[in-house]
Amino acid sequence: MMSDELGVHLNAVHIPSYFIAKYNPEHGAGLLGDKSHSVIFDNSKIKKLIPEFDCKIPFSQGVKEIIAWYKNNKDWQVVNEEINKSIDGITGAYER
Fold first, then answer.
1. Helix, coil or strand: residue 13
2. What does pLDDT average to over the chain?
3. How far is CA 69 from CA 49, 66, 75, 82, in A?
4. Domains in the chain: boundaries
5. Apex CA 3: angle with CA 81 and CA 14, to 5°?
6. Residue 46 in 3-state DSSP?
7. Do 60 and 1 form a contact (C-beta atoms < 8 A)?
8. For residue 49, what pLDDT is reported?
9. What is the DSSP string of 54-86?
10. Most CB within 10 Å of its CB: which of 2, 27, 76, 90?
11. How many CB atoms sit inside 10 A of residue 15's CB?
12. How far apart are CA 9 and CA 2, in angstroms?
């Protein structure tokens, strides 16, 4: 949804957490454990406890709001070249 809203092509590369942690321990350490498995979160528990709870904004609309916020807040449009370099290195190593 984000790439569609931005009008760019998404080139998703799925890399296992253990590979990221091996290649870059600083960034990868936080991915091991429970974050290395897919999970689904829902709001059924809060709806059971508070029946009047109702999400008013679907994610598709939230994406539009998030992107609009970033476009209007130039101070948050900073590219972290160190992280970019690390991600490019991990992706390149994984593809090799």
1. coil
2. 91
3. 32, 5, 11, 24
4. 2-95
5. 70
6. helix
7. yes
8. 93
9. ---S-HHHHHHHHHHHHHT-GGG----HHHHHH
10. 90
11. 16
12. 10
Q: According to the model, what pLDDT value does residue 96 have?
A: 92
Q: How many residues does the chain have?
A: 96
Q: What is the pLDDT of residues 33-51, one digit of tens each?
A: 877 777 788 888 888 999 8
pLDDT of 76 > 90? The answer is: yes
Q: How far is CA 72 from CA 63, 66, 69, 75, 76, in A?
A: 14, 10, 5, 9, 9
pLDDT of residue 82: 92
Q: What was the pLDDT predicted at 10?
A: 95
Residue 22, both tokens:
């091996």
**DSSP conformational letter for 33:** G
Q: Which of 3, 22, 9, 10 is nearest to 94 (CA)?
A: 22
Q: What is the pTM of this model?
A: 0.68
